[in-house]
Amino acid sequence: MNYYLGLDIGSSSIKAALVEIESGKSLGVVQEPKEEMGMFAQKNGWAEQKPNDWWQHICNAITQLKKQHNVSRTQIKGIGISYQMHGLVLVDKKGNPLRKSIIWCDSRAVETGNKAFAEIGEEKCASQLLNSPANFTASKLKWVKENEPIIYNQIYKFMLPGDYVAYKFSNKINTTISGLSEGIFWDFKNDSVADFLLEYYGIDKSLVPDIVDTFGIQSLIDQKGEEESGIAAGTPIYYRAGDQPNNALSLNVFNPGEVAATGGTSGVVYAVTDSLSAKESARVNNFAHVNYKKGAAARIGKLLCINGAGIQYRWLLNNLAVSSYEDMNNLASEIPVGSDGVCLIPFGNGAERMLNNKEIGTRIVNMNLNNHHKGHMCRAALEGIAFSFVYGIEILKSDGIKPKVIRAGNDNLFRSEIFANTAATLIEQEIEIYNTTGAIGAARAANLHKGDFETFGKAIIDNDHVMTFMPFKDKQPYLEAYKNWKKELELILNK
User: Fold this and answer.
1) What is the DSSP string of 202-245?
2) pTM here?
3) What is the pLDDT of residues 115-144, one digit of tens each?
4) Could you identify which of 194, 372, 385, 495 might form a hypothetical disulfide with 376, taking C-beta atoms 3.0 to 4.6 angstroms apart as the criterion?
5) Domain for residue 448, yes or no?
6) Total of domains in the chain
């Protein structure tokens, strides 16, 4: 039996998966380290990690996987890589990191990006970059240029985290259009590297890595890569993408109208469109999706993040007298739609981009201490998080998205019937639930170098489909509850 290896390089852990090439079935997933990876934060708002720590954990995870499933180095026929987006890795001519990686949640370059947005012009940024430079990789590189000139002058190439991992396997430095777009280095109008942004930031174009296709032979494992990883030299790296486009791919989301939703600590709605409109570029990020090709009809992933999602749900689990999520759902199911007037505004996880970066915290309103109890809290929380997803999809609709199908991973929130039924009914769309992960998706994506998207999608439906939530015919109580919630939210926002 032969396999593809999928790697998902997160900021908290590395996950590695093996899938059978023929069937697409997953053999298993391992996580390294067992506890969360640490971050270095020299100052408030900073977040850094050592790129070689990622590599060490990857090598350990591969060793575990092979041992668990009795798989030899030659049975692994290709690699797919998913990685934490928007990070910055800087290497010298020998390929050694010049400093720790400035990762996605580091906010030091916010002002740099905001200044660029104002001075280059909002319209030019929206029409060509489809985003503000904001706190993305390009702005982080500019920050290094301004604040660490000695390091900057030694840079041979900048990379995204996934590019660095591919380099450690192969000794080849390259990137993808999708990767460059997430770093805000891609000019969609001219379908080329964004020279005007590089010029504005004073960044030499020679620092940009060579570009390879998202699907195809990107590089081959070399002898050193074999010695360190335990995968045979000559094995191709077939695929690489940021974690959110990869999550969409894992859920078979490739075409306009298809939407991927995740309900982890933060919630994400990721919708594919063929439009280069960036009307909501302040609240929605736009990146080249995994199947974006120069000269072809555009495939853009519109990414909307909801910070206060799963973390709100988990906070209640930890702080109410409840034993499990199941217990919370049972308590909530005894309460009618609308939670007898109790509203929970679930935005207690920092500034919310979809609320124009306002930080409003979690609010519980209309609580009556004589009539309401923890069941109302549970119901109001699940409804409030569902309403925040619906609110986000309304923003995406105003930016031209027409959802035809919504697919979601089988995480805690989407296992809740109250949450999923509320969202499906208000969006008036089925929500299909799949039991897959980013690492499994990346492993399967290695097979897409053959270009057979139909077989890829069939493997997901055959192996991973759990259930489908249908919208309820009687949506009136849900509409009333959402209207009340939105009214409370607007009162807070318009203060």
Assistant:
1) T--GGGSPEE--SEEEEEE--HHHHHHH-S-TTPEEEEEEEHHH
2) 0.95
3) 999 999 999 999 999 999 999 999 999 999
4) 372
5) no
6) 2
